[in-house]
Amino acid sequence: MNPMPQLIPLLKQLRLSGILDSMEIRNRQAIEEKLAYTQFLALLLQDEMARRDNKKFTTRLRRASFRNEKTIEGFDFSFNHEIPVSLVMDIATCRFIEEKNPVLVTGPTGTGKSHIAQAIGHEALRKGYDVLFQSQSNLLGQLHAARATNAYGRRLATLARVDLLIIDDFGLKPLHPPQDEDFHDLICERYERHATIVTSNLDLSEWNDAFPNKLLGAAVIDRLQHNAYCVVLDGHTYRTPKTMPKSKLTTSTRKEKS
User: Fold this and answer.
1) For the whole prediction, is pTM greater than 0.85?
2) Radius of gyration for the alpha carbons in the chain, expressed in angstroms and rounded
3) Mean of the pLDDT values across residues 225-231?
């Protein structure tokens, strides 16, 4: 007797219909390996847990809004010997999230700040944390739009409770009122409650220059630097331009001359 017609509606009612995806394979395995009923059931439940974990990870990855999939495994540490590899790998354990401490990543353009920040965020996703990656401009733009629709408080609260907020390119554009106030409010709400990563082309000594209100700037920077892990990058840029093959250059030059 085929039990599937009875099993399908029961599994759906219990929200376990994903088990059907591996039922046939596991059933064949149980027969071939003469597994006990409890072993067969354990395999099905392990498959279901793996499916649910993968679904949760995919959802968290989509919500993180990474620019692209940047991982620790995909970062070429050998290209730039100025990168503090041991510090980056230590931060990638995500202990700082439990500690609720900031991570400040500084360095010239092209030295890998955004990649490293997103890679750490990717590690956090793997460990089950919620992550949000935003540039300074996008982040403050969202708060400005929320203020215009009387939703500022709700948006600020949402940003404040994310397990790990990554703010990319801080100081690339100067802050203007009320952006400096919004940035201050966000950092204050997250201070010692949740972890924040900030990347910037500016040296830490120059961060205060991004604020028109120096008192607000000092308050923000003081909170960000408190117990922070500081990663200072230097050396070669990863963004080297591609050179055109010599044959194409010759052909192009000949066409221009003719």
Assistant:
1) no
2) 25
3) 97
